[in-house]
Design goal:
Number of domains: 1
Helix content: 25-40%
Distance between the termini: 26 Å
Radius of gyration: 17 Å
Shape: globular
Oligomer: single chain
InterPro entries: DUF3800
Pfam family, one: DUF3800
Protein name: DUF3800 domain-containing protein
Low-confidence stretches: none
Strand content: 15-25%
Length: 206
């Protein structure tokens, strides 16, 4: 099993709804999907600018990313948490412990995916900055690695933070996450309804 994930969130009240979400997809035959996404994005590589989901220049590609996944043999994933519904346990004084929340949402998503049913699970997630720099990133990695080893002892799990520019399937997860961000921000379920049974969506699990 191959899982590709990226986070999207808004923690600024002035920008509307405050939430944290982790989105992406799982796929057994990653090479086949990689080839299809490469063909979809190929016309956009002629623009001589790095393809990135947050760039309005690639708005059309965002739509195509959802269409591609909807027509592929994948499961689309999303876990969403409203900030105002997060328990006090996740706050230190007045600050939200983002790392703790992020890790908990990941763990809940992994449980939902029943990783114990697979011999191998390769989890590739868009790399990001951590509080505390490299030490913070290492602590986060150890926390997730320990969880996967203890929770799914019969499955060989690997958790691989990777920049989207190094793996186009992480890039694809980035486009999915950006599309979902807009839907969550606007309270628009249209995209989720279109995905139907292909979507595993977890809302406000904390």
């Amino acid at each position: 099993m191959n899982i590709y994930l990226d986070e999207s969130y808004n923690l600024q009240k002035t920008k509307g709804k405050m939430f944290v979400s982790i989105n992406g997809f799982s796929v057994l035959k990653a090479d086949r999907l990689r080839k299809r996404w490469k063909n979809v994005r190929k016309p956009f590589t002629k623009h001589k600018r790095r393809i990135h989901a947050t760039d309005p220049y690639f708005e059309e590609l965002r739509t195509k990313s959802i269409s591609l996944l909807n027509s592929s043999d994948v499961t689309i994933l999303s876990v969403f948490q409203l900030v105002q519904e997060i328990p006090y346990d996740y706050f230190d004084k007045n600050d939200m412990d983002f790392e703790k929340i992020y890790a908990k949402l990941l763990k809940m998503l992994f449980k939902e995916l029943s990783l114990q049913e697979y011999k191998r699970a390769r989890i590739v997630i868009d790399s990001r900055k951590h509080p505390g720099g490299l030490a913070g990133a290492n602590n986060f990695q150890k926390d997730i690695d320990n969880f996967l080893e203890n929770e799914f002892s019969g499955t060989h799990c690997s958790f691989l933070p990777t920049p989207s520019y190094l793996d186009i399937l992480v890039e694809l997860a980035d486009f999915v996450s950006n599309a979902f961000y807009k839907s969550y921000q606007q309270d628009d379920d249209k995209i989720f309804n279109q995905l139907g049974f292909k979507l595993i969506q977890i809302k406000n699990p904390l």
